[in-house]
Design a protein that fits this description.
Blueprint: H1 20-32, H2 36-50, H3 52-59, H4 63-69, H5 78-87
Helix pairs in contact: 1-2, 2-3, 3-4, 3-5
Length: 103
């Protein structure tokens, strides 16, 4: 009996970031991870979904430096993160974690 080959395609999460709601949920999940590398990667994924060149220009960065900053090896400065979030139309907000609320 011959084995049948299954053709697969690479998963690209940018295909699912097609609305403000999807982007917000994705970014909220990334922020909840408390993993700086994952948060930067998530911003990179959102930027790719929105058009990396356009986001880089709005953030005042070159496309190449934005790719580098938001890559797995990148370690962007906080100012870069804020500029990219602003270019994406996102903003940080703060809420108290349940275990840190005062009675």
């Amino acid at each position: 009996m011959a084995k049948k080959k299954v053709k697969t395609t690479r998963f690209d999460s940018t295909e699912y970031l097609d609305s403000a709601e999807a982007i917000n949920v994705y970014m909220e999940e990334a922020l909840e991870s408390n993993d700086p590398a994952f948060i930067a990667h998530a911003l990179g994924t959102i930027a790719r979904a929105r058009g990396m060149s356009r986001i880089a220009k709005k953030a005042g960065l070159s496309r190449e430096s934005l790719y580098k900053a938001l890559s797995a090896e990148g370690n962007p400065e906080f100012g870069t993160i804020i500029r990219v979030m602003q270019a994406l139309g996102l903003k940080l907000s703060v809420t108290s974690a349940p275990s840190h609320r005062h009675a």
